[in-house]
Predict the 3D structure of the following.
Amino acid sequence: MATSSEDLIVKALQEYTTCDVSDALIKLKFRNGGFLSGLTMWSPQRQDGPTKIVGPAYTVEYAPLSDPRPKYPTHYIDSVPAGAVVFVSCPPKIPNAVYGGLMSTRAKASGAVGSVIDGRFRDVQEQRDLNYPIFARDVGTAPPAELLKVVAVNVPVKLQTDEQDMTINPGDYLIGDLNGVVVLPKELGEKAILLMKKQVEADSKMAVEIAKGMSFSEASKKFRL
Amino acid sequence: MATSSEDLIVKALQEYTTCDVSDALIKLKFRNGGFLSGLTMWSPQRQDGPTKIVGPAYTVEYAPLSDPRPKYPTHYIDSVPAGAVVFVSCPPKIPNAVYGGLMSTRAKASGAVGSVIDGRFRDVQEQRDLNYPIFARDVGTAPPAELLKVVAVNVPVKLQTDEQDMTINPGDYLIGDLNGVVVLPKELGEKAILLMKKQVEADSKMAVEIAKGMSFSEASKKFRL
Amino acid sequence: MATSSEDLIVKALQEYTTCDVSDALIKLKFRNGGFLSGLTMWSPQRQDGPTKIVGPAYTVEYAPLSDPRPKYPTHYIDSVPAGAVVFVSCPPKIPNAVYGGLMSTRAKASGAVGSVIDGRFRDVQEQRDLNYPIFARDVGTAPPAELLKVVAVNVPVKLQTDEQDMTINPGDYLIGDLNGVVVLPKELGEKAILLMKKQVEADSKMAVEIAKGMSFSEASKKFRL
């Protein structure tokens, strides 16, 4: 799946924050600027430090045992491509964790750059000892098999929150940092990158002048289009 | 708006925690001791360190684009008085952020002591680099203009949580620390201060005796009224 | 209440994480592996550091003032047994705190190992200065007496979340760490301990091989039963 244009976009995104990506997506009329609510940084630190992840999504769908689809025949964690961000989707209000330390050990060995769990994860200390980035809904302790099964891998999955209707497609760019997690649809990657450079330059100039005493309105008129 | 009695109350409040303020407000029959649920410290550290803010509220009301009121004609951040706490009110379940790093750069240049965002804020690292205190509901990445507009500044605003019915009036004292954010209505400022000194002395004596082995009941009878 | 078999189980549990306990409880068909959702570490650090607590539950039930039961006649905090974990149950959506610094001062003096508050607690800095472990739903600032009263001590209490139907009985083992809080029913203590040793050995071997490049599926087949 990895292509040279994908590589270039991932490289370019390293220069920007999730907020920069959202600013560009808002200009491209992509709703909520791609923000995925409820998913925050837990490892290597809890919402602290310089950690940032960027990569194409490798998606995993968990569903209740009552779901008519069969359990996925192999373990999804054994097929994560190098450079990918693992995205695990889990139904809401499940007390059990869907992701743990051994998953990250395997993902890291495969060259994944981080995991985003729309659900609970566990083994917090082990995740941090691995220095492996985890973004998730919340913590947990119990494994999921009494309630859930994996039903699909690398299919479009929905964010499981009642605040938003957002889809993560395999290969969409996932970007995570202190502010949360953003999805950048694959087809908008190049357009977004082109917008970001100008934005960030304008905002940097605004910050300098505002710190010196210029009003926000004046700085905005002067430096933003 | 700043008066010398206001200054004295702000100065006196520096000596006390949000819990001390709430204890006094409960005695004055002000419900929930003025606690504003859901608003926690994000900058300069996430619920850690000695940060505390105290100041009169400068309020800002965001509403959905469908709101009949027109957009406020100027940028609210250009009129924050020195010493104020900016309070930004945003409807619930909005994935977009209503406050960012450039707002804090401007507020800090104006001498504001901190910002309380009843909504999402963004640019977490920039906020921390500014060493500017932020209390908020949650993080975010996207700007708000696709969904919301500012409709009023320095008007009474409601806390946007389903747990409480609380109003923040312009000029009410806002106090924020590790425990959260408390509103002290302007007209109760002096009465509350008078109660706090006695409370804190009693509680300090109780702590000493309890640590030595006295029962809570005995210490309470001995030192509290 | 303390017995020598209880002491041995508490001692054995010191070797394991909350996740290890949940793994064993899932095998024993105890739902959600005993995980108690919504209760996370706040002191001595916010979800960081090596803090872990283990002990039999000493339970406290708060109810609305309208509850027909009378207020409990003495202060519950004066009767905490050495080695116990205090568990305070509070109805949902209460903005007021039900637990504060003086409670921990007293509990610590009695030899309690930590407190789990299914509700809001306050005096965050004081809790941390005491180096006393607190797990709770959230922070707060106001005392509870305008809304709530203690109605029972050392009775079975329900976890107050809409995600789960879980009961904590007096004497059940409570285990808390970075991943959250788990209840291990008293009668399952010995059986759970026997399962944990094997589990942890298998998982350690899996982690070593997976880090070297073995697939998760192969490692699981090789080391797990």
Notes: Chain B touches chain A at residues 46, 74-75, 77-78, 93-97, 100-103, 105-106, 108-109, 122-125, 138-143, 145-146 (CB under 8 Å). The helical segments of chain B are 4-13, 18-27, 101-109, 124-129, 189-212, 216-223. The CA atoms of residues 22 and 33 of chain B lie 4 Å apart. Chain B has six helices and twelve strands.
